[in-house]
Amino acid sequence: MTKSYVIKPELGKEYPVISHGKGIYLYDKEGNRYIDGSSGAVTASIGHGVEEVAEAMYAQAKEVSFVYRSHFSSDAVEKLATKLAEWAPGSLNWTFFVSSGSEATETAQKIAIQYWQEKGRPTKNRIISRWMSYHGITMGALSMSGHVLRRKRFTSLLADYPAITGPYPYRKPEDMSLESYALACANELETAILRVGPEQVAAFIAEPVIGASGGAVVPPDGYFQRIREICDKYEVLFIADEVMTGVGRTGKAFGIDHWGVVPDLMTLGKGMSAGYTPMAATIVSDEIIETITKGSGSIMAGHTYSANPQSAAVSLAVLDYVEKHQLVEKAAEQGAYLLAQLKELADELPLIGEARGLGMLCALEFVKNKQTKEPFALSGGVGGKVIQKAFEKGLLIYPAMGGIEGVAGDAVIISPPLTITTEQIDELISLLKEAVIAVQQELQDKALI
Ligand code: PMP
């Protein structure tokens, strides 16, 4: 291979070069085939190589690809915003377009702070977030993220926003009912707000289902309903980070829809354009936009590529495809099948502590001791080994390892395209099983389990 000057995740490592993709499969230049069992980073939700999207891309490129949002709007952007207003719950009718999930959560943070400034309450400028969460890699988004591993190098530069822990049913106190656990976790938010004072708090941000930092951790019923009540009581905006869970991934349009709760702001990314273009969004309520319109009249955020017609046309084609092929409903149905298969694996293999998930966002958590749920000393290490083994067998899965060393968080995410068939799920499961058994054997051989 000729020398590469691309800065890759692991410097010095050679990565296979992909030549093309079709449906749930990716093919490299050496002729190897991979099942995209995680949709990349939970992104390629309509599968690879969809013709309609390629056509929409070309049609828009022939008209115009870029106009600057300070000069013009475009049909593509207007149509996309209208569609998102139809999809989104409550009065979440207004979209601020950006290009990545991190930009979406940064923008949500800024809009929340600006909202309170416009209301004449400028001290309400703190965000409360949760440990075991991920909201993005830029400094503002990372400040909100309770992802220990990703924060570590920059801790002294970050705001201390993670203040509470989210519900983690697998590791709840055994003598507590799920119902009271849900309330106890939600009530931590009330304590956190009272500690800093409601007049200091602009917003609370949470992922409806915890993704990269925990691995498809689904909250118990009642949690988000109580969170909404607390936010209302103390006039704190609720931001649902739907970058991973949005656009059908969990079997509903948005993750938060499972609990009938309407946030004040919502962020989207990943599945919104299914990997066909960098596109993300911050969706905002009528009340917030009316307040800012009456106030300064302009939101202090934005990027060069915000609301460009090229990405908007692509995202629109992706949403059309999701609607036309009823992929939200399909994610619910096929996701239930996928989870049932994963639970069978968990029953069979001692290395798997739990199989969990919602819709087509599932995970396996690995433990040293299934009875005591004792995690491995090196958090993330076993998940990493399973990912490597699966890769060698032609299956892609995604790490979820933001836990604290030795305190869980050793999980992998399984989140194939929403288009996956039952036979393809069986194919995925059989490769995954082989990978877990191979790692189990290796650990046994080294007397580590
Ligand atoms: N929020 C959530 C919930 C995410 O899962 C991610 C990405 N894993 C982000 C934000 C950041 O998105 P991006 O990587 O596109 O910046």
TrEMBL record:
<comment type="similarity">
    <text>Belongs to the class-III pyridoxal-phosphate-dependent aminotransferase family.</text>
</comment>
<dbReference type="Pfam" id="PF00202">
    <property type="entry name" value="Aminotran_3"/>
</dbReference>
<dbReference type="GO" id="GO:0008483">
    <property type="term" value="F:transaminase activity"/>
</dbReference>
<keyword id="KW-0032">Aminotransferase</keyword>
<dbReference type="InterPro" id="IPR015421">
    <property type="entry name" value="PyrdxlP-dep_Trfase_major"/>
</dbReference>
<dbReference type="InterPro" id="IPR005814">
    <property type="entry name" value="Aminotrans_3"/>
</dbReference>
<dbReference type="InterPro" id="IPR015424">
    <property type="entry name" value="PyrdxlP-dep_Trfase"/>
</dbReference>
<dbReference type="InterPro" id="IPR015422">
    <property type="entry name" value="PyrdxlP-dep_Trfase_small"/>
</dbReference>
<protein>
    <submittedName>
        <fullName>Aspartate aminotransferase family protein</fullName>
    </submittedName>
</protein>
<dbReference type="InterPro" id="IPR049704">
    <property type="entry name" value="Aminotrans_3_PPA_site"/>
</dbReference>
<dbReference type="GO" id="GO:0030170">
    <property type="term" value="F:pyridoxal phosphate binding"/>
</dbReference>
<keyword id="KW-0808">Transferase</keyword>
<keyword id="KW-0663">Pyridoxal phosphate</keyword>
